Amino acid sequence: MSEVIRHVMISGRVQGVGYRAWVEAQATSLGLEGWVRNRRDGSVEAVFSGPEDTVSGMIVACRRGPSSARVDNVQVDAGTSDMLSLRGAGDRFAFLPTV
Fold this sequence. Notes:
Elements: E1 3-13, H1 19-29, E2 33-38, E3 44-51, H2 52-64, E4 70-78, H3 81-84, E5 93-95
Parallel strand pairs: 2-5
Antiparallel strand pairs: 1-3, 1-4, 2-3
């Protein structure tokens, strides 16, 4: 099974509704590596790394989000190991500061 890294941008009502905590819980339960953070434009940004089918399933879940969110758009691009390395050393999945 091949490993992939995906960079995901989620827009809609995704801040102030527990979206980041939901992403972290979902990704951790799936055994994914990566990070999530808010962006000043109101979107949420995430990087997921792991088996291709598991990452794809996480992206499908991001299109729904937690019940309090309203997801309008999910943009998915190839991620890089440099993006993945933005998390702290030893972290499997991390919250990063808002940018």
